[in-house]
């Protein structure tokens, strides 16, 4: 079932969200603990796995799939219980992202970016703004997109009375086409100061190009967007004083206000890891059912599952992915510890030291390196143990590699290796940047 949807008068193709309507009643209540949330994530993954190959090839906007995420409650997993959220720590959110990505890398990525953007005000906003936006997002079950791509020339911001006005263009945004709110970020005219703000997505000034047609992560709607005279009240400029129209140094104090960066880098690692785990599982089922033993090796076996090189390869991938999972989980707990210790009022946030922030960033960097290397190796290598027929488009095994390859180019992993080398040799923690 196909739906012709629109944003700002521009039509785009998506599946009809009604295909998942039955899950609204099936998942009428939220899970209560980590086990329950991960069970819910597995249920979502099971639904997505049924037609993941077909949906990847059709490359339609994920309007229906985001509706499924909404029905599941996963968008609320981190939100305060008083507003209807799950109030789980990031470590649980990361595992949920990973689980969804096992079935569909695009939806794992969309869930991960949403969880980051939906908690943006918790990190760079005032306590009042954080509460206000958590209430708005969780109570309305909003899906959040983001037009924040630091490598582009930033959006320009002008002050106009009690409002700020965004203008500019971003080559990449994530999930914006199917979002309720979009995070914008730019530089205030006449300064070098950056401002984050939420804007309603469905307005004439946010114009999506619908031009995302890359080799992987095809359902993430990560194409370009034009921002034309989008107005936001000064009171919604995260971390800024609306009276003085200046950044609040207590709210935006580094290092706490820079925690968005390691937090989202670990989002990346977890959907890379989920995609690799999904590839190994998908390939394993294919091998046991379809792969034939090689009859010209001199040590011939009757079944592919008796072939030494096939068993050895699968065993090696299994071991490396287990190690990657352990590292990702440990890094998630490090993120939990930082937020549980230092979230709250501005005085509490200010106690986070550069050394503590840097050490967490290096746990995350280690995870990024390992999940990138392992993810690329596994998703490409499974073809060696599935055989030539597994390259058929109807099998769809290629989508796992295409997804990992696409996003691991987000920022060069070589710089993470260098950063970790300085940490190992010189004891240096990294300076906060847009990618560290």
From TrEMBL:
Gene Ontology biological process: L-leucine catabolic process
This protein's UniProt keywords: Flavoprotein, Oxidoreductase
Single Gene Ontology MF annotation: 3-methylbutanoyl-CoA dehydrogenase activity
InterPro entries the UniProt entry points to: Acyl-CoA_DH_C, Acyl-CoA_Oxase/DH_mid-dom_sf, AcylCo_DH-like_C, AcylCoA_DH/ox_N, AcylCoA_DH/ox_N_sf, AcylCoA_DH/oxidase_NM_dom_sf
PANTHER family reported in the protein's UniProt record: ACYL-COA DEHYDROGENASE, ISOVALERYL-COA DEHYDROGENASE, MITOCHONDRIAL-RELATED
The name this protein goes by in its record: Acyl-CoA dehydrogenase NM domain-like protein
Domain named Acyl-CoA dehydrogenase/oxidase N-terminal: residues: 45-134
Domain Acyl-CoA dehydrogenase C-terminal: 266-410
């Amino acid at each position: 079932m196909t739906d012709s949807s629109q944003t700002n008068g521009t039509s785009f193709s998506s599946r009809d969200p009604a295909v998942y309507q039955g899950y609204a009643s099936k998942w009428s209540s939220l899970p209560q603990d980590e086990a329950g949330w991960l069970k819910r994530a597995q249920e979502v993954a099971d639904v997505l796995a049924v037609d993941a190959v077909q949906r990847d090839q059709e490359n339609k906007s994920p309007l229906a799939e985001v509706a499924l995420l909404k029905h599941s409650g996963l968008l609320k997993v981190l939100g305060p219980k008083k507003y209807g959220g799950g109030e789980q720590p990031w470590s649980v959110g990361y595992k949920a992202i990973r689980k969804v990505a096992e079935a569909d890398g695009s939806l794992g990525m969309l869930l991960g970016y949403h969880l980051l953007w939906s908690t943006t005000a918790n990190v760079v906003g005032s306590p009042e703004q954080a509460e206000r936006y958590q209430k708005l997002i969780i109570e309305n079950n909003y899906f959040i997109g983001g037009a924040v791509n630091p490598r582009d020339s930033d959006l320009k911001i002008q002050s106009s009375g009690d409002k700020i006005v965004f203008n500019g263009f971003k080559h990449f945004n994530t999930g914006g086409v199917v979002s309720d709110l979009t995070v914008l970020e730019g530089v205030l005219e006449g300064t070098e100061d950056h401002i984050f703000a939420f804007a309603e997505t469905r307005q004439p000034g946010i114009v999506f190009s619908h031009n995302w047609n890359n080799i992987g992560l095809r359902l993430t709607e990560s194409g370009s967007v034009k921002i034309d005279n989008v107005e936001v009240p000064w009171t919604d400029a995260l971390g800024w004083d609306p009276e003085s129209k200046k950044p609040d140094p207590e709210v935006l104090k580094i290092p706490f206000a820079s925690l968005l960066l390691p937090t989202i880098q670990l989002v990346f690692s977890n959907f890379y890891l989920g995609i690799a785990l999904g590839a190994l599982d998908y390939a394993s089922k294919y091998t046991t059912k379809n792969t034939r033993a090689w009859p010209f090796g001199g040590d011939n076996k009757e079944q592919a599952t008796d072939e030494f090189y096939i068993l050895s390869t699968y065993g090696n991938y299994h071991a490396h992915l287990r190690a990657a999972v352990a590292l990702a989980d440990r890094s998630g707990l490090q993120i939990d510890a930082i937020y549980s210790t230092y979230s709250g009022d501005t005085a509490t946030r200010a106690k986070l030291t550069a050394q503590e922030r840097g050490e967490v960033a290096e746990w995350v960097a280690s995870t990024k390196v390992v999940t990138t290397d392992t993810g690329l190796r596994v998703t490409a290598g499974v073809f060696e143990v599935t055989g030539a027929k597994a390259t058929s488009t109807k099998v769809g095994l290629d989508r796992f590699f295409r997804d990992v390859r696409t996003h691991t180019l987000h920022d060069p992993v070589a710089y993470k290796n260098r950063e970790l080398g300085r940490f190992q040799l010189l004891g240096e923690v990294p300076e906060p940047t847009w990618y560290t």
